[in-house]
Amino acid sequence: MRFICVGIIGTLLQYGLYYLFLEIFRRALPDSNTMASVAFSIGFYIEMIVNYFLTNYYTFHTHPSWKNAGGFIFGRIINYIVQMLFLNALLWLSMSEEWAGIVAIMLAGVLNYFVLLPFFRAKKKE
User: Fold this and answer.
1) In this predicted model, which residue has the larger pLDDT, 117 or 27?
2) 22-44 average pLDDT score
3) Is the pLDDT assigned to residue 97 strictly greater than 70?
4) How far is CA 21 from each of CA 40, 88, 114, rounded to the nearest angstrom?
């Protein structure tokens, strides 16, 4: 349940930042091609930092460490690649930039949990 709460916060943050930067780019560069991938990346990286601390302190009740940071970054790299593949595939299929962003985030979210779980699972005492 805690993972779902952090996931919702992260999704809202990432999508909010994506949408904000998408609008900024549209206004600043109206004659250029879409900047969806750049806006998406900015939202992703800012959300990743916030998510790391929420994942440690709230989801898994752990503290930041090099071990879980490595696992977290590894998981997030995979998640980023999957999200970007979904985003660009959905854009290629003519989904609007606004909808493609949220759908890509949601489709990749479940995968992220299973990649991160081994790195954050507390070891049982014998």
Assistant:
1) 27
2) 87
3) yes
4) 8, 17, 29
Average pLDDT over residues 38-47: 95
Please answer whether residues 124 and 33 qualify as being in contact, where contact means their C-beta atoms are separated by less than 8 angstroms: no
Measure the CA–CA gap between 35 and 115, rounded to whole angstroms: 29
At which residue do the structure tokens 């009740």 appear?
Answer: 61
Q: Between 36-54 and 66-92, two packed helices, what is the crossing angle to 10 degrees?
A: 150
3-state secondary structure of 29: coil
Structure token digits, residue 39: 């806006």
Q: What's the DSSP call for residue 48?
A: H
CA-wise closest residue to 47 among 69, 82, 18: 18
- The per-residue pLDDT for 67 is 86
